[in-house]
Design a protein that fits this description.
Blueprint: H1 3-13, H2 25-31, H3 35-55, H4 65-78, E1 89-92, E2 112-122, E3 125-135, H5 140-159, H6 166-179, E4 189-193, E5 204-209, E6 221-230, E7 235-244, E8 251-252
Antiparallel strand pairs: 1-2, 2-3, 3-7, 4-5, 4-6, 6-7, 7-8
Helix pairs in contact: 3-4, 5-6
Length: 263
């Protein structure tokens, strides 16, 4: 529904009723998953893991981003998965700081950084993951940023429990990042709900941002991403995975280790 048609629709209603914005109704219903939906999200998480494992041996000096991307997306299809709601993110060098899909492919240098954000999709249900992989000898700054990202993700997991809010989860992220002096290099959101979505985005609501009062309840599928883009040193670091909430700590849909990957 483009804006011009939206205005025409509003004009037709003006003569006999008042329209009320109901945009938030359906996302709240979608945010809590049924048992069958949780099976689909879990399967998507398994496919996400396999996609990374297929790409991991290819990530080395001289590797072509296109071949890495092909291995990841091809694995999703080979396992019966769907096209994702948005394109996988892949970028090396300075492009590792984009954290968005870009056109064009590069080859990895001997000492490089590769940011990846991808998701398996099963019956349109998503379980995104995120990593920055290094080649060669990591810079000291990379190690500092990884320490902050890993600590922040651990804090977010601890906050991602019933009776907390989405704002509480963001606050856990913010507190760690800012403690490490990364306020200028972090984002003002650190994740969102995921489920059955279509192009152009696999993002769903609610999101983790400051003071968001939406409550966390059991049976949500939530993607938490720690994204650091230090444009002062041209160093990137990301770490993220999808969880299912319950009565206690959330369950990760990835079985991959969170250790920094250095090829």
């Amino acid at each position: 529904l483009v804006a011009s048609n939206g205005r025409k629709l509003d004009a037709r209603f003006e003569s006999y009723c008042d329209l009320i914005d109901g945009s938030g109704i359906v996302p709240k219903l979608r945010a809590v998953k049924s048992e069958e939906e949780l099976l689909f999200v879990t399967k998507a998480g398994e496919i996400s893991d396999e996609a990374f494992l297929a790409a991991k041996p290819l990530i080395k000096a001289g590797a072509d981003e296109g071949e890495i991307l092909s291995a990841m997306q091809g694995t999703v299809f080979a396992l019966g998965g769907d096209y994702p709601g948005n394109e996988f993110i892949i970028g090396s060098g300075r492009d590792a700081l984009l954290c968005r899909y870009k056109s064009g492919r590069s080859k990895l240098d001997a000492n490089d950084q590769l940011t990846l954000e991808w998701s398996g999709a099963w019956r349109r249900y998503h379980a995104p993951m995120m990593r920055t992989v290094l080649t060669g000898k990591p810079q000291k700054r990379h190690l500092e940023l990884y320490e902050a990202a890993a600590e922040a993700l651990t804090a977010v997991e601890s906050a991602m429990i019933a009776d907390n809010t989405f704002g509480d989860v963001f606050e856990a992220h913010r507190a760690v990042m800012d403690k490490h002096g990364l306020m200028r290099h972090r984002l003002n959101a650190c994740g969102y709900s995921v489920g059955a979505t279509f192009t152009p985005s696999w993002m769903d609501m609610p999101m983790f941002f400051e003071d968001n009062p939406e409550p966390i309840v059991a049976n949500m599928s939530l993607f938490a991403h720690m994204i650091i883009m230090d444009s002062d040193t041209d160093c990137a670091m990301t770490l993220g995975r999808t969880y299912i909430t319950g009565d206690g700590p959330p369950r990760s849909l990835s079985t991959l280790e969170l250790d920094l990957v250095i090829a």
